[in-house]
Amino acid sequence: MPIVPEGHVSPRPVKNRLWWPAVGLAALTAVTGCGSQQDPAPAAGPVKSSAPATATPGVPENDPADLLSRARAAMDAGTGWTFAVTGEESLELTGAPKEQGSAASYSATVERTGSPEALHQSGTVLSKGKRKAEEVFAVDGTGYVRKGAPGAPWTKGPLTDPEIAAKVEDPLAALASFAAYAERDERIEVTTVGGEIRLRLRIPAAHLADRTERPAVAKAAREFRPTLDKLRKAGVTAGEERIVLTGLEEVLVLDARTHRMASYRSSFGFAVPHEGRQLRYEQELRADTRGSFTGRIEVPAAAR
After folding, report:
1. Is 302 helix (H, G, I), strand (E, B) or coil?
2. Three-state DSSP class for 5?
3. What is the pLDDT of residues 170-223, one digit of tens each?
4. Distance between CA 282 and CA 154 in Å, rounded?
5. What would the pLDDT profile of 107-119 be if each residue is shown by its tens digit?
6. How far apart (Å, rounded) are the C-alpha atoms in residues 252 and 197?
7. Do the beta carbons of residue 240 and residue 213 sit within 8 Å?
8. Are 293 and 80 in contact (CB under 8 A)?
9. Per DSSP, which regions of the chain are E strands?
10. Segment 129-138, tens digit of pLDDT
11. What own/partner pairs with CB < 8 Å and gap ≥ 24 does 149-156 have?
């Protein structure tokens, strides 16, 4: 199960870590120095082999729902997992110099246990040319967030709080997302190449208003919502039927033998019309399974 209740946040990094001007939309085109550099994504580490998961009798081997069920069982069988997570997001106004846009990138190591369900992540946000440490714990329905070096204050709140949930990066939530796509009969391509099973969802284009009918669009919309809310406050009035999803792709990779999750990546973008121009938002993510995690996740006393 995802560590954050379904519907409160989607499994992507970055999570609206853009730097924003505080004086309205006009200032967006004056923002400078928002570097979009990203640390190289750590390569996926080796995972100890185990007995292959057995197929469900009477179910095609490339059935997405069955593959996801086996993947869930394979990941649940482990004590815990370590992931490398990287991502970036950007916002640009068409016609304005690219360096005047806003961008942020994020990289982190995520430790996740299933029994008890707990998560710890330690990473770095790069925005406006500056790096800032960020540490997060999620235990027993509560999130703890610290921005800055050790000694900085902690913020605590329920994982149902969007502001807290938006900081939690849970790669295992990708399994639940793909299961929801399969239940809603979204077209999921399944291919097997070089010992890997790849499940791919693609949406070439859609509208933000389609979120009520398509779970993948709804997930991207939840990620985009904090940015859109800030644009609304800055004077953007375009309705959801005019805001275009310019493309979405999610790829979940499983080990063909064990059905363990090997990696997950996603990318999507939105185009928002405003006064004859477009605001273009883009977000990308990658999460790689590094290996098993056998430690305990405990919230530090200073955060409680």
Report:
1. helix
2. coil
3. 999 999 999 999 999 999 999 999 999 999 999 999 999 999 999 999 999 998
4. 29
5. 999 999 998 999 9
6. 8
7. no
8. yes
9. 80-93, 102-114, 117-127, 130-139, 142-147, 154-158, 188-193, 196-203, 206-207, 244-255, 261-274, 277-292
10. 899 999 999 9
11. 154/302, 154/303, 156/303, 156/304
Q: What is the largest CA-CA distance in the chain?
A: 61
Looking at this protein, which amino acid is placed at residue 252?
Answer: L
CA distances from 62 to 14, 66, 70, 191, 280 (A): 32, 8, 12, 8, 36
Determine the Cα–Cα distance for residues 165 and 3; give it in Å rounded to an integer.
Answer: 9
Query: Can you tell me the distance from the alpha carbon of 141 to that of 195, in angstroms, rounded to the nearest whole number?
Result: 37
Q: What is the 3-state secondary structure (H, E, C) of 49-104?
A: CCCCCCCCCCCCCCCHHHHHHHHHHHHHCCCEEEEEEEEEEEEEECCCCHHHCEEE
Burial (Cβ within 10 Å: 0-12, 13-18, ≥19) of residue 162: middle
What is the reported pTM? Answer: 0.82
Residues 266, 255 contacting (CB under 8 angstroms): no
